[in-house]
Amino acid sequence: MTLSMFDQFQSPSLYGLPLITLALTLPWVLYPALTGRWLNSRVLTLQGWFVNRFTQQLLLPLNVGGHKWAPLFASLMIFLITLNMVGLLPYTFTPTTQLSLNLGFAVPLWLATVTIGMRNQPTHALGHLLPEGTPTPLIPVLIIIETISLFIRPLALGVRLTANLTAGHLLILLIAKGAFVLLSPMPAVAVLTMFALLLLTLLEVAVAMIQAYVFVLLLSLYLQENV
Amino acid sequence: MLSRAVILSANALKGRGHFGAGLVQASRSLHTTSQSLAPVPPLPEKGGKVRHGVFPEELFQLLYPKTGVTGPYMLGTGLLVYLLSKEVYIVNPESFAALSITSVIIYGVKTYGPSVAAFADKLNEDKVAKAQEVKDLAMASLAQAIEDEKKEQWRIEGRALLFDAKRNNVAMLLETNRRERIHMVNNEVKKRLDYQIALQQLHRNMEQEHMINWVEKNVVGSLTPQQEKESIAKCITDLKALALAKATA
Known about the structure:
The structure holds two protein chains of two kinds.
Chain A: H1 2-6, E1 13-14, E2 17-18, H2 20-25, H3 42-59, H4 70-87, H5 99-120, H6 122-127, H7 139-182, H8 187-226
Antiparallel strand pairs in A: 1-2
Chain B: H1 2-13, H2 20-26, E1 50-51, E2 55-56, H3 57-67, H4 71-85, H5 93-157, H6 159-222, H7 225-248
Antiparallel strand pairs in B: 1-2
GO molecular function (chain A): proton-transporting ATP synthase activity, rotational mechanism
Main location (chain A): mitochondrion
Protein name (chain A): ATP synthase subunit a
């Protein structure tokens, strides 16, 4: 039972070929290419509007040095949100449930922000380790705590995304299984369970979007500190 | 004529040797598209028609001649029943999850679909409206410029009237000036003549006075003292006579 519930998170492969490559690259075809036209179709117009608004909002607090990261943030957001949302469809594999993928995003990007900070303005970057207005006896302890907090950031980023999505998928599976099993003996309870599943699905849709946004937002915040 | 020869020879060369195909390519006899990208063909205004949100209308049109209106529905039902009964598609907990996510998607599309579409259309329309506004402003200003130019041309036509009026003005000024000067001349001449007259009058008066004075002087001088006494006595007797006459009257 436990094994089959986690089977959905196994990296899929067909005849030894990893299908995760397809899972990672196929969402790309959902987005139409930019034509050279002045007036586009509805989908393209909405896509352009969304990316523009999102990038503008995200880059508002950043100074000009951070604007170099605009394409990275926009594409990362689109990628994560697409993977999360497509993963909610039945019989799909969500690559963002894999800790390897999420850490693979979080660690290099976080390390990039830290390295930029240390290289360009080391004093300012190190200054973040001590919040303003701390009483003097607390300083050594606080520096240690802040350093630990700094190094736990990539882990937190990666694990947050993984845990949220994995938990969501597991819950959906569990409640669906409950409804399925209850259907013959107690149909009324099964209906209630289906209602709960409906609400959970709504929550999962929201979580999918929010988690992707939070990932990118936190990265932009880390960048803001260091640039 | 030469192009015909080229095409014929190219077609003949198609199968010849290893470089036959290359020679054919050079004359574009197998190409179907044009070599120019302009003008860009327009995009269709609306997407393809679909029924029930996912099935393209072309499927229904395809099946209509053979199976009528209910054909595709029968096909769908039969397919579903086949998949379920032959356990090609097994109902498992994932199906319930599928059901819930499908209903969420359908609800989302039905509720927010029109407003999102209207928003996208509005974005495009705003873009067009901005450009249109620029064009309209330009056209309005140009039309206004045409009107102004016509007005200027009309004004030019009235130029002759203007010049006539100006000419009249100038003539009147000149006339006024001339009359003033004549008047002035008149006055001057009259003044001089008056002077002469006054001078003559003065002469005459002086002569008259002089003569009267001379006569008086002579008369007074000619009067001897004897004559004076006689005249005085006469006067006294006259007066006495008068007084007597008066006293008796």
